Amino acid sequence: MTVDLETREVKKEEVFGEELAKGGRYRTGKTLMDLRAYEKDPLSPENPLVFAVGPLAGTSFSNANRTSVGTRSPLTLGIKEANGGGTFGYALAQLGVATLLLLGASRDWVVLHLKADGGVDFHPADFLLGLGNFEAARRLFERFGRRIAFALIGPVGEYLGLLSGIAFSDVDGRPSRLAARGGVGAVMGAKRVKAIVLDVPGRVEVWDKPKVTADMKRYAELLRQDDLVMKFYNAIGTMGMADFQNVFGGLPVRNFRQGQLAPPEAFRMGGQYIAPLNKARGGKQTHACMPGCVIQCSNVIVDERGEEVVSPLEYETIGLLGTNCGLEDPDQLARLNRLANDLGVDTIETGATLALLMEKGLAPWGDYAFMEAKLKALYAPTEEALFLAQGTARVGEALGLKRVPVIKRQAISAYDPRVVEATGITMMITAQGADHTAGNAPRLETRAMRVEEILEASYQAQVNAAANDSLGLCVFGGSVTNQKRAFIVEAVNHALGTDLEEGFFTALGAEVLRLEHRFNHLAGFTHEDDRLPEFFYQEPVPPKNYTARFRPEDLGPIYERLEDAAR
Fold first, then answer.
1. Aldehyde ferredoxin oxidoreductase N-terminal domain: which residues (predicted)?
2. What is the pLDDT of residue 19?
3. CATH class of 2-199
């Protein structure tokens, strides 16, 4: 479905077979290439904004209802795919929409409403403007009823702040599942779309319903039999990665000055401390963000009175908005996380930006009151807010700082590339900016490995991530999905009536990587843009005291696989 926001013309085109199977991140990237988005000003009406789901969306196939958002990023100036869970992708597929493409810009602020009867309404958005996401969500439910899903931008997206993401509704109606990175919320704001509301029909058509039902049950069984899924993601959630990285030495602490915040027995910013405390207070440590998911790695954090503070509190937020800013109190972090969700901002980019203010000496490390005040300042487009909302790279440049942890103008995720080297290589080479979700290998001890083995590990992680993103699957099921490719492809065949072979999975992931690198090449990027900031090469990070080893000139074996994209 294509919506021209200027003319309000809606076009629909049917897609079938393999074209439908190649959804999500592939579909957003292919659409952006076809429309030559690499030539467009990211905040102009000409820059497309694409929402795409995978071939199993709309069903209760576990963790298969991710929504990919694609555009030319106003933060990185390269291609961007940011994806999130929640109910938006589930509803979009049930409406029979595999791809929603927004073109142009509306004259006035609007709420798009995709209705169960196939119609599209344009409602004035005046009743939502200037509101935080939680109040805006309440008003959407009040106006359109409870049987809806939505995508929503917060106040930072309204004034085109590059910290802004797009919030999707979760299964309980919270506006808390963000396609967060790259400034995608600013692009939606530039189009003057405050929210997209979807009716939820409650059913979806598949090619062979009995086989799809059997596949859903089998996949759920495989996930429940997997130790990583059930003993880590289900039991503790992503916050358990903070405990691991604190021991491993790859945790970002005080603007990447250290890799460990505290000895393990004194560490309070990970799942080993937070999970039992939260459960004792009456919070939830197992919570599904999307319909049908059995991984349930989300959580609902409550305070000492048992009242909800935020859902979810995840590792990347712990790393960048927490330890990277010197915070040591998880209750303080949960309150900041709530503010960030209400503002609709990326906690990675926001945390990295706030850390630069402390780097500059404007506040002590871990100054909660200072951080809270800066977040609250983002609600209105004051001079201060417009400055902070530019993101880490631009704020760091304006402050004259040398230690600015970005690649392609995007903040580095919560894995120090000096220690978590395979993920560091991914963050260097991916066209997405410094994005760990493009291919993460967070537990890999690389110092005993050969260089070619580390490069191969990063590349394979990138292929797998791209394939999962294109199939609409959450990567947290990867310990099953990536080992059961034949089963996953057969499930797609049962859903669509295709005759795809097992090799489709890997080929799809590789094709996405080539496409994205080709886009960035056409947008003016070179291999030099893949270099880490210099301080990573110069400063050893305690406790392991490693410096970064990899530079663009060391990444040749991966570049060779992307050579079609580099010409």
1. 1-204
2. 95
3. alpha beta
